[in-house]
Integrase (Roseicella frigidaeris), 321 residues
Amino acid sequence: MLPDRVSPTLPGALAVPAAVADAGEAAARRYVEFFMAQIRNPNTRAAYARAASDFFGWCGRHDLVLAAVGPVHVAAWVEGLGRRLSAPSVKQRLAAVRMLYDWLVVGHVVPHNPAAPVRGPKHSAARGKTRMPTREEAKALLSSIPTDTVVGLRDRALIGVLLYTFARVGAATAIRVGDYYPVGKRWWVRLREKGGRHHEMPCHHTLGEWLDAYIETAGIEADTHGPLFRTAKGRTSRLTATAMSQPDVYRMIRRRAEVAGVATQIGCHSWRARGITAYLENGGLLEHAQAMAGHASARTTKLYDRRGEQISLDEVERITL
């Protein structure tokens, strides 16, 4: 198998698989343009690049050049993926290769899309797999965060954003100081969600108190264009001007969970699930939760609804001998 090649003439010096590079400079350029021009979300770009690299790596191991790839080859690759990846992961990788080939067809690099007729594995989910803290665990973790340092205030406010606005972690880390703003007597939070959408949410009074305390202590009120949630300098309590990354937030949550003795293996997305479930448990409507979470479909919102889990547990406990 030939290694992927990096062409210095291509933007971003993106690694081009050997099977594509061997088809000529036009094919290599079209390949890079797919990732640089078509996909704006960096997370999606990275995921699709991994899928393409995996597929063309498979082609290289089977001595397939770009023009020789057909539906049977894509189907064989998908079959192999199914033995080591979950159905949703396989479907995502197939979708990435399918979209890439559509782009190559339009650019007259290949005559047809070999991934178009290939079906992915069937998959349906009635509930999400995101692990969610119980109400007691959530309270214990939040109350265990010390509020006598700016880092503690930052962590509490950040988790509060995930909990009270149902924000994705990527949207939370992208918040600027000026995205927390007043409208009349109420304060709002502006979120930058996937696809470049701006999503405004009224600020829960508890979240407002946490944000006010953090911003005042951090002294960042005037830096309206700067990131709201910032990294700290080493183990000090001094903040930098750099925004926290998603891995930073995950490590913070895991560290806070360990200190609080939370048994559930929670992460960033766990607070989104906890917030949606709490809202529905307190009489909120599913369609309103959908709008607040920015979901295109209520079916997606339902994946975060864990109200039935306790009922199921109570019923299982009835089984006694």
